[in-house]
Design goal:
single chain, 450 residues, alpha/beta, six-stranded mixed beta sheet, five-stranded mixed beta sheet, 13 strands, globular
């Protein structure tokens, strides 16, 4: 965990020197481009590999909820330079999309490249069997170790960062906060006091969007900074069957916090969707929304005139001196081992991670958090919510979400979280149910000690 904090601290010091061209984005290109051609890069003349003799079309599998503007712009430039065309193959999100990815891998029907989760979900795909080992590729040299660990198996790296990191915490309406004279809470008690004032003002204090059950788990997941602060060995102990949510008070606290919010939820929380929640937040009828910062791009796309009204703060702990942000790693970009175009796919990835590729991506798609690069910078016009995250990175008060520290994340957590949030089960019962869910997964993965 200390290594993670140091990596994030290093990142933030460069992020604060924001500049659009250098940064906002992806990972840097090859060692030769970064070192030997620094002057050419600054002039927009990055040295790259030659174009292919005959046009090749790469198919890339990607979530259909992803904004493609930035990726398409990068792909268009790659086609101009290298004679490599790109066809984006859209897949569903959520569990349906996960099942589709697994099925296509198992049947040998995977596209040349694919965007997917990193961390435990990526590792559950058995990347050593299906994806190209990128460990020795020079264009990954500036990718932070904390990300590489999230896509590595037995010390080998199988994917590159597919975008920016995200913060998991609380989105809030800054305009309503100003109207009600509220301050960003650093403790759970301060958050609950704000909730009381918001409720008294006739607004929904905490938006629940449990129609989309995956949103219910964010309160628990975003609390991981607080867990590792209290129990630094929790991730390893949890992975090795030496710690449980139900028997670790700091981990159980996430389920307790989730249920303590019930009096402040919208009454129709079980019928409310993620999209409706974003509408409530931007309109100010709902003021707090526990969520991961990728929602900022969705807000900007649908409610661009409201994006600067939305801020982000970390999930508060129980004491003011322990306040930090749980961070989600970027999604993965991997190359299918059986693709007939592996070399072209590497060339695509190399440009995508280069300074020019990063600048193109940033010009069309703003990041939802810092990028996992040692020399990355955010654009000056980043979302206000992303800027709110920078002090946590600068202070080194960040931690990777548990799913990036451990291969374990039970598939039934969304439904367990809904039942907990609406008091169908107690926090203790919910934690025990999740421990059982994780046990099944650990045995399926063949982890030692289970």
């Amino acid at each position: 965990m200390l290594r993670t904090k140091k990596a994030f601290a290093l990142l933030s010091s460069t992020v604060l020197l924001a500049g659009v061209l250098a940064g906002c984005g992806g990972n840097n290109s090859t060692t030769n481009t970064n070192a030997g051609n620094a002057e050419n890069t600054a002039n927009g003349d990055t040295e790259t590999s030659p174009a292919t003799a005959e046009k090749v079309t790469l198919k890339i599998l990607i979530d259909n909820q992803t904004s493609l503007d930035g990726y398409q712009a990068v792909a268009d430039e790659i086609e101009k330079r290298f004679n490599i065309a790109t066809e984006f193959d859209l897949r569903p999100g959520g569990s349906e999309g996960d099942n589709l990815v697994k099925t296509r891998l198992a049947t040998g029907d995977m596209d040349d490249m694919s965007f997917y989760n990193s961390g435990s979900l990526f590792k559950a795909l058995d990347p050593a069997k299906y994806y190209v080992d990128l460990s020795d590729e020079p264009f990954l040299s500036n990718v932070m170790d904390v990300f590489k660990e999230a896509v590595s198996v037995d010390g080998k790296v199988y994917a590159a960062p597919g975008g920016s990191s995200q913060g998991g915490g609380w989105l809030y309406n800054k305009k309503v906060y100003a109207e009600l004279g509220l301050s960003v809470p650093k403790t759970w008690a301060e958050l609950m006091a704000n909730n009381e004032k918001i409720k008294a003002a006739g607004k929904t204090a905490v938006i629940g969007s449990f129609k989309d059950s995956w949103t219910a788990q964010v309160v628990l997941l975003a609390d991981y900074y607080n867990v590792q602060n209290e129990v630094p060995t929790f991730a390893d102990d949890y992975t090795n069957n030496k710690a449980k949510f139900a028997t670790t008070p700091a981990a159980l606290r996430g389920f307790e916090k989730m249920q303590e919010l019930k009096p402040y939820l919208n009454e129709d929380n079980l019928a409310t969707t993620y999209d409706t929640a974003l509408k409530m937040l931007t309109e100010g009828t709902g003021v707090h929304y526990p969520m991961i910062s990728f929602a900022l791009s969705a807000i900007n796309s649908t409610y661009p005139d409201k994006i600067n009204d939305i801020g982000v703060f970390a999930q508060p702990s129980d004491t003011a001196d322990k306040n930090g942000l749980t961070v989600w790693m970027p999604g993965s970009l991997a190359i299918y081992k059986e693709s007939p175009h592996v070399e072209e796919a590497k060339k695509w990835m190399e440009f995508f991670l280069s300074p020019e590729g990063v600048a193109i991506l940033a010009s069309k798609t703003k990041p939802d958090g810092p990028y996992m690069l040692t020399d990355a910078k955010l654009p000056d016009d980043s979302y206000e919510g992303v800027k709110d995250m920078l002090p946590y990175f600068d202070a080194g008060t960040t931690a990777s979400a548990l799913e990036f520290e451990s291969p374990l994340k039970g598939p039934n957590l969304p439904q367990i979280s809904v039942e907990n949030a609406v008091e169908i089960k107690t926090p203790e019962e919910s934690a025990k149910a999740y421990d059982k869910d994780v046990e099944k997964q650990a045995k399926q993965l063949g982890l030692a000690g289970w």
